[in-house]
């Protein structure tokens, strides 16, 4: 079983954007919610803005509670991180980023210029509109039963 710091916490945009950074062991950071350390998240929303350059693809997803910036790095890092998706996977994911698409994103929480963002590791286009409601229900349940409790 994954530790809480490694599993992807399901969060609504408003909860994700309210996280504050807490340094752990450099160069890593966590974003604690009560005593629950959050470093990786899953979010779901509609793509409402996109911007790209040769290095990365930046887009916003809106879940009704806020807009979350997501970044997909198009060029591999040096040295490579074993957790990063393969270059061909990155290209496939970049092709899925289209305005108006309902997408589920998973990745590491990061901060750029003081704003929280998701550094993507995974992106899936959702074809079932019911997934929005299910994601909301999961997020509310997890906040109540896990993330906001002292012992989860």
Question: How does this structure look, described?
Answer:
- It is built from three helices and nine strands; from the N terminus they run E-H-E-E-E-E-E-E-H-E-E-H.
- Mean pLDDT is 83; it is low at 1-5.
- A five-stranded mixed beta barrel has the order 5-6-7-9-8. The chain has a three-stranded antiparallel beta sheet with strand order 2-3-4, with no helix packed on it.
- With 152 residues, the chain is α+β, with helices and mostly antiparallel strands.
What's the structural blueprint in terms of helices and strands?
Blueprint: E1 8-10, H1 13-17, E2 22-23, E3 29-33, E4 36-38, E5 40-52, E6 56-62, E7 67-73, H2 87-96, E8 102-112, E9 115-125, H3 130-147
Parallel strand pairs: 1-5, 7-9
Antiparallel strand pairs: 2-3, 3-4, 5-6, 5-8, 6-7, 8-9
The H/E string reads EHEEEEEEHEEH
Query: What distance separates the N and C termini?
Result: 14 Å
The unreliable regions are: 1-5
State the strand order across the main sheet. 5-6-7-9-8
Shape: globular
The biggest sheet, with number of strands, parallel, antiparallel or mixed sense and barrel status, is: 5 strands, mixed, barrel
| Contiguous helical run count | 3
Classify the beta-strand content into a percent band: 35-45%
How many beta-strand segments?
A: 9
User: How much helix is in the residues?
Assistant: 10-25%
Overall pLDDT level: 83
Structural class: alpha+beta
Quaternary structure: single chain
Rg from Cα? 15 Å
């Amino acid at each position: 079983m994954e530790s809480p710091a490694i599993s992807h916490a399901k969060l609504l945009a408003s909860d994700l954007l309210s996280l504050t950074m807490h340094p752990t062991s450099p160069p890593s950071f966590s974003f604690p919610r009560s005593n629950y350390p959050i470093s990786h998240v899953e979010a779901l929303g509609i793509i409402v803005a996109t911007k790209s350059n040769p290095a990365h693809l930046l887009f916003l997803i809106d879940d009704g509670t806020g807009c979350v910036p997501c970044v997909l790095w198009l060029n591999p890092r040096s040295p490579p991180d074993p957790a990063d998706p393969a270059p061909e996977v990155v290209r496939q994911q970049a092709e899925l980023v289209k305005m108006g698409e309902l997408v589920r994103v998973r990745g590491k929480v990061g901060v750029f210029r003081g704003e929280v963002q998701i550094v993507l590791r995974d992106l899936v286009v959702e074809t079932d509109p019911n997934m929005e409601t299910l994601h909301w229900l999961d997020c509310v349940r997890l906040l109540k039963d896990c993330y906001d409790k002292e012992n989860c």
